[in-house]
Amino acid sequence: MRKLLLLMVVVIAMAMVTSPADAATTDKGLVKSYCTKYFGMTPKYVKCGSKVLNHHKGKMLVEVVKTKSIGKGWGKTSKGLKVRYNKKVKKGRKVTSYLIYDPRTNAPDAVIAVVDCKKLRGDKPKVKAKVKADIHCPYCGDGSKTDCPYYCGFNNGTEYRHMTDKEIAEFEWYESHYQTEDGEWHVR
Q: pLDDT averaged over the chain?
């Protein structure tokens, strides 16, 4: 019985020691909280210099840049580009910076925030920006009316928005079909 009790204490202590750090204190946690707080979008991480960055309007893209510190808060990429850090870093240390691109524009230099060294630097929009999806609603036109049947809650009721065209088509397909016990779908 003593061994079992001692084993339980050790397991609980190890769980407390090895528990993951608070998400808001990690670089990726800061990126995710910034993107969801100000834009209501989940970030997509892309490699440094990716061609996807040329067409980032409407997408929450985050460029991952790996650098080596050259001292006094500056670093260099493998291609020789200089990057400014959020704090001083000892020379020779490797640092990963996350460059958050503005989803409201397609400009190639539209970096609105940088996260590295567990700190965020950049614009903090005063109002949550709305990145409007292409909506062609059969009831309300552009998706601006809240009494529309396609304006509903998502994420367990924490977010209310209009369905996109793809979501409307999927919803209408399921409304016009039914599934039998053997798993086959039929038109109503």
A: 74
Residue type, 116: D
Strands (E) across 17-165 are located at: 44-47, 61-71, 74-76, 82-84, 94-101, 111-116, 119-122, 151-154, 159-162
User: What is the reported pTM?
Assistant: 0.56
In the block, residue with structure tokens 């919803």: 171
Q: What is the pLDDT of residues 36-87, one digit of tens each?
A: 888 888 888 998 888 888 777 778 889 898 888 888 888 888 878 888 888 8
Per-residue pLDDT of 110-127, as tens digits, reads 888 888 888 888 877 765
Distant-in-sequence contacts of 105-113, Cβ < 8 A, 24+ apart: 105/57, 106/54, 106/55, 106/56, 106/57, 108/53, 108/54, 110/56, 111/63, 113/34
Token duo for residue 144: 């601006």
**Helix residue ranges per DSSP H, 18-131:** 27-39
What token pair was written down for 97? 């910076």
Return d(Cα 142, Cα 181) in angstroms, integer: 39
Going from N- to C-terminal start, the domains of the chain cover 21-122, 132-188
Sign of torsion, CA 17 18 23 26? positive
- Burial of 56 per CB tally in 10 Å (0-12, 13-18, 19+): buried
- The position carrying tokens 């049947």 is 149
Reference 117, options 168, 67, 175; nearest CA is 67
